[in-house]
Design a protein that fits this description.
This is Multicopper oxidase. With 154 residues, this protein is mostly beta strands. The protein is 6% helix and 36% strand.
């Protein structure tokens, strides 16, 4: 059996995993969309993530970067609650405060391929609620590869 995107949306709705105060507090990580950062001519990147109303998630839920480096991340809070984002950043995590209907920009540097998680720790979603992922592709140096058979490369 194959599952199409439409099936998945219907299944998430039926399971009560597509919004706030249903089966779970909000959307579960991995049930949102995938987005890509844009690369500028100088190699720095930009992306926008937003918090839709009453879903308690980031949109896109997974943001893919073509490589490590500097990211200018715009965050928009369209929810009725205040949220924040505690963002991964080389050196020190950064926090940005997002009152309802606020927009802000964070400059972060992530120089290594990998999967980074960020979240809001406020706005009735403490714990692991409102979690998003930033995935950095690119070549992994040999010394950092997992010990497993060679994987196909795009
Ligand atoms: Cu929050």
């Amino acid at each position: 059996m194959t599952t199409t995107a439409d099936d998945r949306s219907a299944q998430l709705a039926e399971a009560g995993l597509d919004g706030q105060n249903k089966t779970a507090l909000g959307r579960v990580l991995g049930t949102g969309s995938i987005g890509y950062a844009e690369e500028r001519p100088d190699g720095t990147m930009t992306a926008t993530v937003r918090i839709p109303e009453d879903e308690l998630c980031w949109e896109p839920g997974t943001l893919i970067l073509p490589h490590g480096g500097d990211l200018e991340l715009t965050l928009i809070n369209d929810d009725k609650n205040t949220h924040c984002a505690v963002l991964p950043n080389n050196g020190d995590p950064k926090i940005i405060w997002l009152v309802n209907h606020a927009k802000g920009t964070a400059s972060i540097n992530l120089d290594g391929p990998g999967t980074y998680y960020y979240g809001s720790t406020t706005g009735n979603d403490e714990g692991r609620g409102l979690t998003g992922a930033i995935v950095i592709g690119g070549e992994v140096p040999d010394h950092a590869k997992l010990d497993r058979p060679p994987q196909p490369r795009p």
